[in-house]
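Researcher: I'm preparing a figure for a lab meeting and need a structural model of a single chain. I don't have an experimental structure, so a prediction will have to do for now. The sequence is pasted below. Please return the structure as C-alpha cells so I can convert it later.
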Amino acid sequence: MMLTGKARLAGVLGWPVSHSQSPRLHGFWLEQYGIDGAYLPLPVEPAYFADAVRSLVRLGFRGANVTVPHKEAAFRLCQEDGNSLTERARAVGSVNTLIFEADGRILGDTTDGFGFVENLRAGVPGWDAAAGPALILGAGGAARSVIAALQDAGCPEVILTNRGRERAEALAADLNGGRTTSLRVVDWDQRHAACDGIALLVNTTSLGMTGQPPLDLDLSALPDRALVTDIVYAPLETDLLAEARRRGNPVVDGLGMLLHQARPGFAAWFGVVPEVTEALRAHIISGRK
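Model: Understood. Here is the structure written out cell by cell.
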C-alpha cells in the first residue's frame, strides 16, 4: 500500500539483520490490517547502536525490535536517565523491543517469554503452567526468558540443566530471588532421569538445530501427558519433537514463539493487536525456503 507522510515507522536493529524474519512478519500484518506504516531491516554495527536508536527517535519512528548482538546494549540504553524498562525486561536483563514515547523517552521490553507462553497456550488449548514441573535444557538468554515467564505463569518447579553447570547455577541464582517457583539445577548427565514426573520439557539449546549436533535425550522416563516444545524452528519439527510425537506426547514447535513475541511490539507501534493465524505461519514458512 502507498505510504503517506503520517506513516508509522518501526524496524529491527541487528548486525547482521538480513536473516531476520521480522520484516516479513510485520509486513504481513501491516498489509492484513491496512495500516499506513512500514517495518524496516536496520543493519547497525555495535559501536553505533545507541546513536542509531536516538536517531530513530528523532526521525519519528515508533520503536524497533532488537536482535543479536544488541540486546544487552539495548538494556543498558534503557537504564539511562529518562528511559525505562518493563518489569519483565528488568527481571530477565535483556531487551528485544523498544517503544519510543511521544516525549522522546525509550521504554525497553522483552517479549520472548510472552511469546513462549502464548505459543504453548495456542498449541495446546487448556495448557496450564501450574500443571507440574518443567525441565529446561540450556542456560542461555532464551532459557532466562522462558524460566521467568514460567515463574510468572505459576509453574510450581523448574528443573534446569546445561552442559556447563556453572552457567546454570548462575542463572538459577539470578532468577530465584522473590519467586514462589522452586528452581533447581541438575547435572547434564542427569537430564534423562530428570524427565521423570515433569509436565513440560523445553529445549532452549541449539542442539538439534539445522547445522548443529543432535540433542541426545532419552525420553523413556517422560510421562505420556508431558508437553514437549523446542524453541528451535529450523527444522520446524526437530528430532526431539518427532520422537515425542511418536510416543504420543503433545508437542509444540518453536515457530509460534517467534510469531507471538512480535504481537506486543506491533500493538504498541501500529495501534492494532495482531492475530497469529495459519495464514501467517504459512507466509513465514514459505519465506524460509
